[in-house]
Amino acid sequence: MMDTRHDRLVEDLAGRLEPVRPLPRPSLRAALWIGAAVVIGTLLASKLAMIGLEHRTGRADLWLAAAGGALTAITAAYAAFATSVPGRSPAWALLPVPAAALWIGASGLGCLRAWVAPPLDLSEAHEPVSCFSFLVCVSVPLSLLIVAMLRRACPLRPNLTAALAGLAVAGAAATLLVPFHPAEATASDLLVHAVVVVGVIGLNALAGGRLLSKAPA
Amino acid sequence: MAASFALGTGGFPPVGRAFRPAALESARGEARAGSGMALEGELASLMAAAQRGDAASYRALLRACLPVIAGFARAQGVRGDAVDDVVQDTLMTLHAARASYDPARPFMPWLRAITQRRAIDRLRRAARRPQEVFDPLSYEAEVDPLPAPGAGIEARERGAALARAVAALPEGQRQAVEHLGLRELSLDETAALTGRSKNALKVNLHRALKALRASLTPGGE
Known about the structure:
The complex is a heterodimer of chains A (217) and B (221). Chain A has 217 residues and is mainly α. Chain A is built from 8 helices and no strands. Chain B has 221 residues and is mostly helical. Chain B folds into 2 domains: 2-128, Orthogonal Bundle (Rna Polymerase Sigma Factor, Chain: A); 153-216, Winged helix-like DNA-binding domain superfamily/Winged helix DNA-binding domain (Arc Repressor Mutant, subunit A, Orthogonal Bundle). In chain B, α8 crosses α11 (198-216) and α9 crosses α11 (198-216). The longest helix of chain B is centred in the middle third of the chain and has 22 residues, at 107-128. The radius of gyration of chain B is 39 Å and the shape is rod-shaped. Chain B starts with a helix and ends in a 5-residue tail after the last helix. Chains A and B meet through α1 of A and α4, α5 and α6 of B.
């Protein structure tokens, strides 16, 4: 009887088979997504004044934080696409950990220096950009794009993959914010960034996990 | 290695032109001998053909995968009928995820990963459902809501004794008991039905109850 049940399903699946194109390698898919983030950054650069870059180019922690954020975005994106393919090791999820540590550490260092030395006051030199809305506005399209790309694969651990996607989005958004950030990172700035980053990762893990799941009902 | 146990139970049905039973049969033999490489290659090529839309290859692939999936599920700890459920879940996931298979990579790890995940899902669902627990004390202390064995016999005997006692009453008393006591008709209705006066019915009922009490009380007869 069970053989009959399996035979019926096999016939059903074979009957509605359609050609599919094998997905590109995770590295290529991650590169495509990073490319989309770069395009968004270029568009923003053409619209907004890069005031942060103009005034803070000499700060090492700024470049460290930017490099950490970018590396986090790249490695987390690769890890997300790698874990979305069955048979790939879930240990890929550890790939973005060093970059994330650098990113968070350098951001914290900037905050610490702001306590020791008085930060530059650039409030009169430009129209302040709201970090919060910037991060959210950049995160939303990047999140939608990466979830849509991941849905084409088959993440067997959808929550893990979605959390990695959220980390990639958060890293990319924070990196894109650096050139446009009007002032030194203060504790409140960092708190806002942290809230948005955690929110982006959490929302991706929650919503993305459901969206990415392909478990039969 | 995973293919070796799987192939022991699996039969490969006749398939279309893209499928080569002889080649796959030879792959079965090699797999039994401990080499799954030929089977791996066959399944990978069938899957690549399925990705191109070859339904015959796809059908052959899925049928060849049935025992393999069942073996993976059992290795994961799934037992009984749940193995067939995991096979079904895995086949559906395989279908939905077939674009994620990279023809340049081995097929078995891809299939094993899907099966293991579906097996874990099934085991988790089973763990959330209430299960039978071995608890002899609770079993012994459980109160059976149904009547005890033999309880109906006594009731039936009492009913039969009452029926016999009523039948033995004089005609007037029997009518009073049947209509007023058992059918719960009113005095007027019973009077109209029997043609007796209400006072006579009252007296007959009183005497009938007295007679029944005497005949049904133990030692009264």
